[in-house]
Amino acid sequence: MNDTELREQFHQWAAPLRATPPPDFTTIRRRFRRRLARQVTVGSAALATMGLVAALLASALSGVARPVQATPWASATYLAPPGQPYVFVNASGGDPAELRDVATGSVVSVVRPIPPAVGFTAVAAVPNDRMFVLAEQGADGQLSFAELRVEGTGSGSSPTVRLTPIMTGAAVPASAQPENITVNATATRLAIDTSLPDGSNNLTVYDMRSGSVIGSWPAFATPQFIGNGDKLAVDWISGTKRQLASGHVRSSLRTIDTAHAFPAGSSFLADSLPAPGLHGFSGSFMQDGSVWTNTAYGALGTVSTNGYSGATRLLEFSASSGRLLHAIPVGPAGALQSQYFCGVLWASADGRDLLAQCGTRQQAVIDGRASVVRLPWIFPAQLQPGVTPFAW
Amino acid sequence: MASSDEFREFYQASYGRTLATVAALVGTRHDAEDIVQEAYARALARWTLLRGYQLPEAWVRKVALRLAIDSGRRYRRRLAAAARLAAQRRASSPEPGEDLKYGPLGTALLDLPMRERQVLVLHYLADLPVDAIAREFGLPVGTVKTRLSAGRRHLEERLAQHPEAVGQ
């Protein structure tokens, strides 16, 4: 076979694909929008470790200085943060997923979805690091939920992992694709951001004990429970078609108190409150109420279309005043487009200690000071919209 | 012409070509669609810059190929679950290219190492000359020629085991 014949064969073989009309342009816009949301937030799944210490929450929100103390885990020879030894990794797209030991990188358990579910699509960690809440999907697209409990973690014993269905009676829209989920510290509230077949997004908060809906709003939002109560922080993004095309979107950080139920059809903007001093800004709340974000945009939290190639920095703002607390370089230029995760991997309850990764660079950040660490593996990026890659 | 209209026109004109190239690399249409759509979403994000390029399609193809090649098996495994869900939700009537990987040429291609497959696809399907492939991947021209030659030889060996592929 000569060159020309081989080329012809290739072209014949691929002709049906070349003739395929592209999917509607809104498909690309939706991906762009999700991508933008992911990039201006700090991996909400990683930040689902919230609300351990109420006193620290109160002190952080009131602006009281946090005590500086040695953090033994943050060294070049990395040790797992105290009390946080497990991470749920969903890198394969959900079947199977793995529970890993952070310090060693070893697989504690291979976790498979509960039939008829065929894949895990989102995961959130409860701050005690012994419970993870998983969103599963069946072959028909039906969404369901399960809890994964890690038991028998005392010294000398091997942990056992138990996966059980929860919220079996919860009303879940058919064919909803979960994008972000978060669970509160007491494991009584679950918030989930889903994309629907028509391209819109919906934020729903459930009572985990009964499966009933606390509130549901048509909103494109990255939810994050903060503190140890029912307060939900939301990175809310909206934009007109023109704004999206030019890369400019409206966004703000807002909070909703989910202790009580909201009537169906209520307004998201009316039900939520803006974070003080942070209007027009995107990021993610820490469990202490301060805000972390990663940005490649140069200006603080300002979104522009030509900033993706810039260096990546983590910025911490005070949620009470909007004041910039720290700006830490974490990634080289272009890291946000890497195949690896870029953002915060883990955060302590008071937000003072962080583990961050951007591309292949991993760092511990303590009170705004970064030092390089090396975890046993590199966390993958969320390349596939709708698949949350890990929860710690 | 408005920037968004320009991008839409570019997308509609080039999507099929990019999809074909990526599908030849990854072997399935569904995986390829996910990768290509992700590449176009990235292009949309930086269209202000790309619109000034002489060949923005080359940038999209490069991003798509990197997604397909660099992340390799892990990315495809991750896509598999989502693609399986999507496929099962889809209507039963086959779409063009649905069974791409099952054709003899597709099967033979997938048997080849990725480094050989990528130069074959870029040369014979995307019609890129050897020096352009070398520039695109930052490889010496000699390396590309070697891979192309080995890839051709291996491909012909595999196609010979499936003679019905010839003239397909």
CATH C-level name of the largest domain in chain B? Mainly Alpha
H-E order of chain A: HHHEEEEEEEEEEEEEHEHEEEEEEEEEE
The residue-averaged pLDDT of chain B reads 73
Largest sheet of chain B: none
As a percent range, the share of helical residues of chain B equals over 70%
Strand order of the largest sheet of chain A: 3-2-1-24
Mean pLDDT of chain A: 70
Described by its quaternary structure, the protein is: heterodimer
> In this structure, how is the largest beta sheet of chain A organized?
4 strands, antiparallel
What is the straight-line distance between the termini of chain B?
Answer: 43 Å
Structural class assignment of chain A:
mainly beta
Total helical elements of chain A: 5
Cα-to-Cα separation, first versus last residue of chain A: 55 Å
Tally the beta strands of chain A: 24
The third-level CATH topology of the largest domain in chain B is Rna Polymerase Sigma Factor, Chain: A
Kindly describe this structure.
The complex is a heterodimer of chains A (392) and B (168). By secondary structure, chain A is mainly beta. Chain A has one domain: TolB, C-terminal domain (Neuraminidase), CATH 2.120.10. Chain A is 12% helix and 36% strand. Chain A has five helices and 24 strands. In chain A, strands 3-2-1-24 form a four-stranded antiparallel sheet, with no helix packed on it. In chain A, a hairpin with a 7-residue loop joins strand 1 and strand 2. Chain B folds into two domains: 93 residues, Rna Polymerase Sigma Factor, Chain: A (Orthogonal Bundle), CATH 1.10.1740; 66 residues, Winged helix-like DNA-binding domain superfamily/Winged helix DNA-binding domain (Arc Repressor Mutant, subunit A), CATH 1.10.10. In chain B, helix 1 runs parallel beside helix 4 and helix 8 packs across helix 9. With 168 residues, chain B is mainly α. About 15% of the residues of chain B have low confidence. The radius of gyration of chain B is 17 Å and the shape is globular. Classes of the chains: A mainly beta (392), B mainly alpha (168). Chains A and B meet through helix 1, helix 2, strand 4 and helix 4 of A and helix 1, helix 2, helix 3, helix 4 and helix 5 of B.
